[in-house]
Specification:
Elements: E1 4-30, E2 40-56, E3 59-73, E4 79-93, E5 102-116, E6 121-147, E7 151-178, E8 186-204, E9 207-222, E10 229-243, E11 252-268, E12 274-303, E13 308-335, E14 341-349, E15 353-359, E16 362-377, E17 382-396, E18 403-404, E19 408-418, E20 423-450, E21 462-468, E22 472-473, H1 474-480, H2 485-491, E23 498-499, E24 503-509
Antiparallel strand pairs: 1-6, 2-3, 3-4, 5-6, 7-12, 8-9, 9-10, 11-12, 13-20, 14-16, 15-16, 16-17, 18-20, 19-20, 21-24, 22-23
């Protein structure tokens, strides 16, 4: 007794580690002599940079810097900013060492609190979460065929997306911007943010070409001596080539871009005036490439000759259903009337907070854009007002399915204007990039062998009359009577293997 099995390999994207590690930010800051005294702290922020991340054996490590910015008002209600770096190093223990795995680490400020201990000292406490993700492509096998010892197989054809490659690459994007002769020179930077936008991806054999732009927004104090700010908005183009040996031009890719670091520093011109902004950023691209494959899996098996030991396991197959990039406009009227605002001094935004769900053939994303506004009230006092601009995005998909998606939302531009009724009109352009997956779950055969010591099944030629009650498959009937689907269909001249109506069948049993 021998059964010959045929297997085929399929590529899967495996996430070996996906967890958060907290890093505390605790420091006592003393202002240098050139900074005026603190009368009121308006805002304290922590902007995180990941300078280095790597996997060494069974440990993932990340080095970075938390830039603490304290925006405050002096006794004359003039706004100032002081910043200080807080370097950190953190690691995550992995369950084992993974060959050819890629690491992506992102840092997010969970919260930050600060208080003025005196007019010259500030106590800062906060927490930064480091998100470690370790991924790799791996090969799995499924049994696609078997023969010998009267083996009967129930097969199902599937169109799946085979993972060809999982790669990552970090690259730099930089540019020096002139703020112009008509604008005031650059004083202290209050806030800097960047959004990576992927405009196009091309695939040729062994290479992935990414084309996009980094949308940068820098808010800075003007050096005119007046209590005012300026905003620099610029789009820095980038083109990057990522090596991926198993990628062909027929693949589809899921590209996720992250900002590892961003610095915006004033730079002098030939006259010694700060009219240039030196912008440097490091981006990380995580790319998963998929190739469409048609496979057959075995969902049931039996033998007409001998008893067999068949084992099954549930398997989830991912299929790329939709790949798209889109743009939406978020508009909201923010109520700031309780602050009696007379002037909008500055505003900053954070990354959108989103929730994605599926309802039938609809993909629905609800989100909020955190907005921080510094306004000047009726008495000329700057005050901080924090609000959220809400938006919703809906996209129709092709039919109902078990969909999943982790879309990326990036602010490519925003504006805010103070209205006379105590409202601030906020508008933002949000770029959406998403790959929607359809999950197919099947119970598939993983091992099959003839049972030793059971002997062969007794075969007595016979013809059994079976009364089908309707909504029965020929496979189930053949399995019950230890015969084959082909013999039942030939004996009864059937053209389909599923019987919807009641009927009488002649079952050839050997």
């Amino acid at each position: 007794m021998s059964i010959e099995l045929t297997s085929r390999s399929i590529g899967l994207a495996e996430t070996y580690f996906d967890n958060f590690i907290e890093q505390g930010v605790d420091c006592d800051i003393t202002l240098p002599d050139y900074c005026p005294d603190i009368m009121r702290i308006l805002r304290c922020t922590v902007h995180n940079c990941i300078s280095n991340s790597k996997i060494i054996g069974d440990r993932a490590t990340a080095d970075g810097n938390a830039k603490i910015r304290i925006v405050y008002a002096d006794e004359k209600n003039k706004v100032f900013c002081y910043e200080q770096d807080y370097p950190f190093s953190k690691y995550a223990e992995l369950s084992s060492a993974y060959d050819n795995a890629v690491l992506v680490c992102n840092a997010k400020t969970e919260y930050v609190n600060c208080r003025a201990v005196s007019k010259r000292r500030v106590d800062v406490h906060g927490v930064v979460s480091l998100h470690f993700t370790v991924k790799s492509g791996r090969q799995d096998t499924v049994i696609s065929d078997a023969c010998g010892d009267g083996i009967q197989l129930k097969k199902k054809g599937l169109d799946i997306d085979d993972v060809s490659s999982v790669v990552s690459k970090t690259f730099e994007v930089s540019q020096v911007e002139n703020v112009g002769e008509t604008n005031s020179g650059i004083g202290k930077v209050l806030d800097a943010s960047a959004a990576p936008i992927l405009n196009e991806s091309k695939l040729i054999k062994g290479k992935i070409l990414l084309k996009g732009e980094l949308c940068v927004r820098v808010v800075y104090c003007a050096d005119s001596g007046e209590n005012e700010t300026c905003t620099l908005c610029t789009n820095i183009p980038f083109n990057e080539i990522i090596e991926a040996a198993s990628v062909t031009d027929e693949c589809r890719v899921d590209v996720k871009l992250f900002v590892n670091s961003l610095t915006a520093e004033p730079k002098t011109d030939n006259d010694g005036e700060y009219r240039y902004m030196n912008i440097n950023s490091e981006l990380c691209a995580l790319v998963t490439a998929y190739s469409k494959q048609s496979i057959k899996v075995i969902t049931d098996a039996y033998s007409t000759d001998t008893d067999i030991d068949a084992k099954y396991r549930p398997v989830e197959f991912a299929c790329v259903s939709h790949t798209f990039r889109d743009t939406l406009i978020c508009k909201d009227s923010l109520d700031v009337s309780s602050f009696s605002p007379q002037k909008l001094y500055a505003f900053t935004t954070s990354s959108p907070q989103t929730k994605c769900r599926f309802d039938g053939d609809k993909m629905i994303v609800s989100g909020k854009v955190p907005v921080s506004l510094v306004v000047i009230d009726a008495e000329g006092v700057p005050v901080l007002c924090e609000r959220e601009a809400e938006f919703e995005y809906t996209r129709t998909l092709d039919g109902n399915a078990d969909y999943s998606c982790t879309p990326q939302f990036e602010l490519s531009g925003c504006s805010c204007n103070l209205m006379g009724d105590g409202k601030a009109d906020f508008k933002a352009e949000i770029c959406i990039s998403a790959v929607v997956f359809r999950t197919v779950r099947e119970k598939v055969l993983t091992s099959l062998e003839a049972m030793e010591g059971t002997g062969r099944k007794q075969k007595k030629p016979a013809l059994v009359i079976y009364f089908c009650q309707g909504n029965e498959s020929v496979w189930d009937i053949a399995r019950k009577y230890n015969t084959t689907v082909d013999e039942i269909m030939q004996e009864n001249e059937l053209s389909v293997d599923y019987l919807e109506n009641k009927t009488m069948l002649m079952i050839p049993v050997k």
